Automatic annotation (TrEMBL), chain A:
The keyword RNA-binding does not apply. This is Tryptophan synthase beta chain. The lineage of its organism: Bacteria, Pseudomonadati, Pseudomonadota, Gammaproteobacteria, OMG group. The modification N6-(pyridoxal phosphate)lysine is found at residue 99. GO terms for cellular component: cytoplasm. It comes from OM182 bacterium. CDD domains: Trp-synth_B.
From TrEMBL, chain B:
SUPFAM superfamilies: Ribulose-phoshate binding barrel. The keyword Lyase applies. Tetramer of two alpha and two beta chains. GO terms for molecular function: tryptophan synthase activity. InterPro entries: Aldolase_TIM, RibuloseP-bd_barrel, Trp_synthase_suA. HAMAP family: Trp_synth_alpha (MF_00131). This is Tryptophan synthase alpha chain. It catalyses: (1S,2R)-1-C-(indol-3-yl)glycerol 3-phosphate + L-serine = D-glyceraldehyde 3-phosphate + L-tryptophan + H2O. CDD domains: Tryptophan_synthase_alpha. It comes from OM182 bacterium.
Length: 407, 264
């Protein structure tokens, strides 16, 4: 690894001003523009810096436990009776999801910028836990913003963050979920910009965040490419990943962007069904707007007010999406579909029964679509599903649906 | 000369009052606008309600929520200005908000209708000049000003760029933080204003953190005027129905007096 984020291809987005076509950009209040410029220049220097890259590589290997396996799900494939299904096991990372890949990178950036304090927003609590974890690992002060609605749904992760020494700050404005936690984190950053680095949990936010997080997460795709080649030969026919903000999807898609024969499929949350409006699928059902620092597909009404979203998985429950996904949709390089709550739950149960793997409800959306897709393909074809996280945190939710209380 | 520059370049220090349109409803907003003018407000900043006002402190956040509860859209904000203009064609009105409602309406359609309604200028909190050129073109075509913000963290080079892109006035955000936060560092404000003056002839107004006559006078001594928002909105939230706008007017009288004392 001589540097990170180089695609070694013709694809060179975002452009110098942080745009992916009409998407992306830096739609922030003036107070933050200097901090964003500092972050950008720090990153541009460090991404080729040998010491930084060695620190990153070593932490990913010895702390996170990378590389994560690419696992051939033989029984699941046989049951579907179509393409071979491989699972990229991001659930096996330290803290149980892909979020840590980017948090390690961010913590190293904070260290190099001399910022002793980090803040983060979280929905399901996975990104909050990953941020609190790297804060403990690097000796940084950490505050995590979380909607009061989500704090109730995810008490386990809330306590876990406290054990890690982070302060969880309840957010009771707006819809009291992820988007409001993000608003509150931005407000904190505006106020404490001198000593604070903001770790955005996904490939959204103002430039350079979408690029930064993509670059840190693209280790998933690089490993997948190498592992698939050595275990199976060639390239997979399709890659499937769930999309909330879209960081795990962007991470696995990015190294394959120029491999045009590989279909890239993002799976949004159809919630109670796309036709009901109770979903979180801006790429399927939304239109272009500006929120949280970037222009992207959004769920908003005819007056430009952001709409409430619904998904059984808190991690996909977000009205926007990373701007690069909007761009990949519009140029036709990636396809975006949606899976509803029930389909995701079925996949959640099936993967437990057939493979002994407990997927996060977020990742279960990708598994559900991957299973569908496999049946329409031939046995000599292959699909890689990004299993972005493990489902321990979701056991209380699923148990409740079964009428069992284990909180 | 425009209505806005006529006002801001006048003899006395300018007092701009910020309220959220439709807080708590449209009729109340129009009344309040007239009342504020009657106690010495020189120009009105009308906040466009938005579901995700990320730069606002708690006081103005809940004002946005109240305004959305009464279903106040961007089109309604324009209607409010139009109604205000029936009996007031003197006082400049500037809309202040976030980009998404404007972008959803469409830049040109918005600019046309804003002009028609009697709006004088526009401040968009999450639109730095680098992203603003297309909107600016539409607004300028309708002789509307697009006012940009300068912050304590803005580098000298950016100050120059922002001033050259701004029209109407330069809005200096006096503190790092959200609206209504913290206490002012008047020394810091003073030195930043000197820097802005050295590169721009536009009037400079200072906002964020001005709460009363005393803070208004301290800041007004170095600027061409002040913007007061959270302090007013806080009073609106606590105002008892039936008492008209007595408390807001008392606060504004005090601030007006603070400013007039330093003008002399």
């Amino acid at each position: 690894m001589s540097s990170i984020g180089n695609n070694e291809t013709l694809y060179s987005f975002p452009d110098a001003s942080g745009h992916f076509g009409v998407f992306g950009g830096k739609f922030v209040s003036e107070t933050l523009t200097t901090a964003l410029a500092e972050l950008e220049s720090t990153y541009e220097n460090l991404r080729e810096d040998e010491t930084f890259l060695r620190e990153l590589r070593e932490d990913l290997a010895y702390y996170v436990g990378r590389s994560s396996p690419l696992y051939f799900a033989e029984r699941l494939s046989r049951e579907m009776g179509g393409a071979k299904i491989f699972l990229k096991r991001e659930d096996l990372n330290h803290t149980g999801a892909h979020k840590i890949n980017s948090c390690i990178g961010h913590a190293l950036l904070a260290k190099h910028m001399g910022k002793p304090r980090i803040i983060a927003e979280t929905g399901a609590g996975q990104h909050g836990v990953a941020s609190a974890t790297v804060a403990a690992r690097f000796g940084l002060e950490c505050q995590v913003y979380m909607g009061t609605e989500d704090i109730e749904r995810q008490s386990l992760n809330v306590y876990r963050m406290k054990l890690l020494g982070a302060e969880v700050v309840p957010v009771s404005s707006g819809s009291r979920t992820l988007k409001d936690a993000l608003n509150e984190a931005m407000r904190d950053w505006v106020t404490n910009v001198d000593n604070t680095h903001y770790i955005i949990g996904t490939v959204a936010g103002p430039h350079p965040y979408p690029k930064l997080v993509r670059d840190f997460q693209s280790v998933i795709g690089r490993e997948t490419k190498e592992q698939f080649r050595s275990q199976n030969g060639g390239l997979p026919d399709a890659i499937v990943a769930c999309v909330g903000g879209g960081s795990n999807a962007m991470g696995i898609f990015y190294p394959f962007l120029e491999d045009k024969a590989v279909r890239l499929i993002g799976v949004e949350a159809a919630g109670r069904g796309l036709e009901t409006g109770a979903h979180a699928a801006p790429l399927n059902e939304g239109s272009i707007g500006v929120l949280h620092g970037n222009r992207t597909y959004l769920m908003h009404d005819e007056n430009g007010q952001i709409l409430p979203t619904h998904s059984i998985s808190a991690g996909l429950d977000y009205p926007g999406v990373g701007p690069e996904h909007s761009w990949l949709k519009d140029i036709g390089r990636a396809e975006y579909t949606a899976i509803d709550d029930n389909e995701a739950l079925k996949a959640f149960r099936k993967l437990n029964l057939l493979e002994g793997i407990l997927p996060a409800l977020e990742s279960s959306h990708a598994v559900a679509y991957g299973m569908k897709l496999a049946t329409s393909m031939c046995p000599d074809q292959s699909i890689v599903i990004n299993l972005s996280g493990r489902g321990d945190k979701d056991i209380p939710t699923v148990a409740r649906l079964d009428g069992i209380s284990i909180d | 000369m425009s209505r806005l520059s006529d006002t801001l370049e006048g003899e006395r220090k300018s007092l701009l009052a910020y309220i959220v349109a439709g807080d708590p409803n449209r009729v109340a907003t129009i009344e309040l606008m007239h009342d504020m003018v009657s106690v010495g407000v020189d120009a009105i900043e009308l906040g466009i309600p938005f579901s995700d006002p990320e730069a606002e402190g708690p006081v103005i956040q809940v004002a946005h929520e109240r305004a959305l509860q009464s279903n106040t859209s961007l089109a309604d904000c324009l209607a409010i200005v139009k109604a205000f203009r029936k009996t007031n064609d003197q006082t400049p009105v500037i809309l202040m908000g976030y980009l998404n409602p404007v972008e959803t309406m469409g830049y040109q359609k918005f600019a046309d209708q804003a002009y028609e309604s009697g709006v004088d200028g526009m401040i968009i909190v999450n639109l730095p000049p680098e992203e603003g050129s297309v909107l600016k073109e539409s607004l300028n075509r309708n002789s509307l000003d697009l006012i940009y913000l300068v912050a304590p963290t803005t580098t000298p080079k950016r100050v120059e760029m922002i001033c050259s892109e701004s029209s109407g006035f330069v809005y200096y955000v006096s503190l790092k933080g959200t609206t209504g936060a913290g206490t002012l560092d008047v020394k810091e404000v003073e030195s930043k204003l000197k820097q802005i003056r050295s590169v721009s002839k536009l009037p400079i107004l200072v906002g964020f953190g001005i709460k009363n006559g005393e803070t208004a006078a301290a800041v007004g001594a170095h600027s061409d005027g002040v913007v007061v928002g959270s302090a007013i909105v806080d009073v609106i939230a606590k105002q008892k129905p039936g008492f008209a706008n007595k408390d807001v007017c008392n606060l504004l009288r005090e601030i007006r007096q603070g400013l007039d004392e330093i003008s002399r």
